[in-house]
Each structure stands twice: as C-alpha cells, then as structure tokens.
Design brief:
Elements: H1 5-8, H2 14-27, E1 33-34, H3 46-57, H4 70-84, E2 93-96, H5 98-110, E3 116-121, H6 126-133, E4 137-142, H7 153-159, E5 164-170, H8 182-195, E6 198-202, E7 229-234, E8 247-250, H9 253-266, H10 272-283, H11 287-308, E9 314-315, E10 323-327, H12 335-346, E11 348-349, E12 351-352, E13 361-365, H13 370-387
Parallel strand pairs: 1-11, 3-4, 3-5, 5-6, 6-7
Antiparallel strand pairs: 2-8, 7-8, 9-10, 10-13, 12-13
Helix pairs in contact: 2-12, 3-10, 4-10, 5-6, 5-9, 11-13
Bound molecules: pyridoxal-5'-phosphate (PLP).
The site of pyridoxal-5'-phosphate (PLP) has 14 residues, from helix 5.
C-alpha cells in the first residue's frame, strides 16, 4: 500500500536505534549505564495510585466527556489561576493524552498549509514533526551556549513573518535544562503582544527548578499576553506519571472547543480512572513533588561538578528539568556516531543532539542514581579522551 505523503515527512526517530541497541545489550547481561531516559526514575506517589484504584473499584470505567472529567478541568483551572497568576475557568482547559498530545491537538486545530511555527533550537524533538504533520512549516531559530540556548527578543522578532502563527516556547527546557528568567520572559512577551502572534508555552517542567530559579509563565508576563498564550503541561514529569498519559492545554475557549471537537473524533477521552489519579495529585500535598525535586537537585550538583572537570567537553549549568546538554564539538564526531560508539565501547547510552537540532551535542539525563552518574561520567571522560 502507498503510505500517505505526510508520513514521508516525518523521519524515524534517531534515538530509536540507540535505545533498541542499549536494551539488547542489557538483555545480553552487559552493564549498560542509561543516561538516555526522558522520565523520572521514581514510582508514582502512592496516594495517586490509590485514587486510581479506588476509581476502578467504583466503576469509573466508562466513556467520559471528551474535554475531560469536569472536576479535573475545574481543579486544573484553579491550580493554574493560583500558580500562573492568570484567571482560568474550566472552559479554558482540555485534558489530553499527555502533554505531547495537547501540543499535537493544538497544531491540528490551528495550523494550515503555509502557516509558520517558530521553534528555537535546541528543541524538544517532536515539535517540528507535529508542525509538519499538521501541514505547517517549522521555522527553526538556532541558539547556542552564548545565550544559554535561549531565543532572544531580537531573534524572535527577526523570525516573525506575516505567515507566523505560533511560537513554541519551552522553559524549563528539554533538552538543555535552561530556564528563562522572568525578565527574559517579559522581553519575549513584549514581542509576542506587539506582533500579535500566538505562543504555545510548554511548561511541563515548571515545578522542577533549582537554586532559586524562578518560573514565570509568558501568559502572566504582560497585560494581554494571556490572550495570546496557550499553556501546555501535564502530570508526567512533576508527579512521575509518564505512563498515565495525562496532560492538558489551557487558553482561549474557542481553541479549546476546536481541540475538543478533534478529540471527540479521535481519542474520545483520556482514560477515565487515570483522571482520578490526576485529581488526587492536584488535591493532595505537593511534598512528593518536592522530594523528587530534591533528589534531582543532588544528582544535578554531583553530575555538573564531575562533567565540568572533563577535558574536551562543555556544558552550561542547567536550572531546571533533569538533563545536561553537552557540547562534544571538539571530538569532531557527529552526535549519532558519538552516541553509537559511546554505547559500543563504554556501555553508556546517551541521546544524540541531532534529535534536538544540534548535531555537536549530546543529552544526558540525570534521572538516575548517584552511583550510575559517578561511573558514567568516568566512562565518558575516558571515551572523550580517546577521541580528542
Ligand atoms: C515529556 C515532555 C512532554 C510531554 O510528555 P507527556 O508524557 O506526553 O505528558 C512535553 N514536552 C516536553 C518538553 C517533554 O519533555
């Protein structure tokens, strides 16, 4: 069968081959250190699991409303109103199958052929692919360590054309771990409001911050910026709920309505009893989130100190999420070759920066234990030394 042309535009994930190989090596009994994971290594907190179990026992096993359980939409709206500082009501919220799906649905609801979507690189790997699947044109704006991998207001202004529909902002960032300061967010909001474009703000790591870093949502950065902002977030990263598939989008009612229509004909609703887990997450104490954050904070300290001492590579200190983005340019290896050889020769799995739009970097996740971090950085040091 001839496949749809849209599939041709979306390449196989460059990370797939490496993670498959890492799994195979592990199955052979090799001691593989995995720095490639994009999820917390903790179990979902027990009170959240218990709430979903209770929902199952109570027969919350049927179809629900396409936009989400009313109680959950209400709670998300209330939480965002408090945390973001902008008023949201339930009609401004759609519950989706993860933050990934909220972004995808948004693209499907808003992007037409010819529409441009501005994406700063390094970017989370799915953004450009989603835009292409929606028949839009990704406009990649490269950034580097000199601006801590952040887009500046000047760069954003230069990238805007009459065809620009959306700007994708991700802070804290996957893959770089960078966090835009409140002043930087305000300066970007200025450009957004002045130009009239929309911004989708992927804030899935907003609770995973270190050393006094502050998260300001662009929705709250300037009077009027909320009207042009769509916040995408979810429960996966902060509550260790990746497999539950729970995300949401917050913003303009008309857009939420359009996404609900699409959802009603595609996914119907997010798993009903999963949503009761999310309700418990929002109603319960955030101590569990803080405990995980503190564990990440310790690992970040240790890993950053060790990595900074490795000759031949550079890394900017991250202030959020759980990744370090490492420049491997001095080895003159492409990131895919680098990661394949690192896995082959040192049994260490990392993600090639090529997946994020920068082929002279690799991403290391520190969602792993301290011993793995210590051994891993040693192996990386030996590996890099052999390639210089
Ligand atoms: C993990 C992640 C998401 C969404 O994850 P879901 O599991 O779909 O909720 C969205 N954006 C970024 C940058 C991520 O790292």
């Amino acid at each position: 069968m001839k496949l749809a042309a849209r599939v041709e535009q979306v390449p196989q994930s460059v990370t797939l081959a490496i993670s498959a190989k890492a799994k195979a090596m592990k199955a052979e009994g090799l001691d593989v250190l995995n720095f490639s994971v994009g999820e917390p290594d903790f179990d979902t907190p027990p009170h959240i699991v218990a709430a979903a179990q209770k929902a199952l026992d109570e027969g919350k096993t049927r179809y629900g409303p396409a936009a989400g359980e009313p109680k959950l939409r209400e709670l998300i709206a209330r939480t965002l109103t408090e945390e973001v500082g902008v008023n949201y009501s339930a009609e401004n919220i759609i519950v989706t199958n993860g933050g990934k799906h909220s972004l995808y649905s948004l693209m499907m609801a808003t992007i037409e052929p010819g529409d441009e979507v501005i994406i700063p690189s390094p970017y989370w790997l799915s953004y450009p692919e989603m835009v292409k699947l929606a028949s839009g044109t990704p406009v990649i704006v490269p950034t580097d360590a000199s601006t801590e991998y952040k887009i500046t207001p000047e760069l954003l202004r230069e990238a805007i054309t009459p065809k620009t529909k959306l700007f994708v902002l991700n802070s804290p960032s996957n893959p770089t771990g960078m966090v835009y300061t409140p002043d930087e967010i305000r300066a970007l909001a200025e450009v957004v409001v002045e130009s009239g474009i929309y911004v989708v703000s992927d804030e899935i790591y907003s609770k995973i911050l270190y050393e006094g870093a502050q998260h300001l949502s662009i929705a709250a950065a300037k009077p009027g910026s909320d009207k042009q902002t769509l916040i995408s977030s979810g429960f996966a990263k902060s509550f260790a709920m990746t497999g539950w598939r729970l995300g949401y989008l917050a913003g303009d009612k008309t857009i939420i309505g359009a996404m609900t229509r699409i959802q009603s004909h595609s996914t119907s609703n997010v798993c009903t009893f999963s949503q009761y887990g999310a309700i418990a997450a929002l109603e319960g104490s955030l101590d569990c989130v803080e405990e995980m954050r503190l564990a990440f904070a310790k690992r970040r300290e240790v890993m950053y100190e060790l990595l900074s001492a490795v000759p031949g590579i550079q890394c900017v200190k991250p202030y959020g999420a759980f990744y370090m983005y490492v420049n491997i340019g001095k080895t003159h290896l492409g990131s895919v070759d680098f990661c394949s050889a690192l896995l082959e020769e040192k049994q260490m799995a990392a993600v090639p920066g090529k997946a994020f739009g920068t082929d002279d970097h690799i991403r290391l996740s520190y969602a792993t234990d301290l011993k793995t971090i210590e051994t891993g950085v040693k192996r990386l040091e030996e590996f890099v030394a052999s390639k210089l």
